[in-house]
Amino acid sequence: MATSAVKGPASYFPSIEKKYGRPVAEWKELIRSSPLTKHMELVSWLKTEHGLGHGHANALVAHTLAEDTGK
After folding, report:
1. What is the pLDDT along the chain (71 residues), one digit of tens a residue?
2. How far apart are CA 35 and CA 14, in angstroms?
C-alpha cells in the first residue's frame, strides 16, 4: 500500500528538526507564544531571532496559523 508523500509546509518538518535540533512542536509553541500575529512578522522574527531560513520559517508559520484558524 503506497502512502502519499507529505506535501505543503509539513514536508519541510523533517529537515527543520534535523537542521535546528528542535522538534516542530516546540517551534509551534514559540510561534503561538509570540506577541506577533501577522504571517510575515512571524517569519521575519523566526529568521532574525532564531536563525531559520526563509522557507523553513514560512512553512512553520503557515502550518501553525492554518491549524489555529482551522483551515
Report:
1. 445 567 788 999 999 999 999 999 999 999 999 999 999 999 999 999 999 999 999 999 999 999 988 75
2. 26
pTM of the model: 0.87
Q: What is the Cα–Cα distance from 40 to 42, expressed in whole angstroms?
A: 5
Q: Are 47 and 53 in contact (CB under 8 A)?
A: yes
10 Å CB burial of residue 12 (0-12, 13-18, 19+) is: buried
Question: Locate cell 523566526: which residue?
Answer: 46
Residue 35 phi/psi, 5-degree rounding, is -70, -15
Alpha-carbon torsion angle 41, 71, 7, 63, nearest 10 = 30
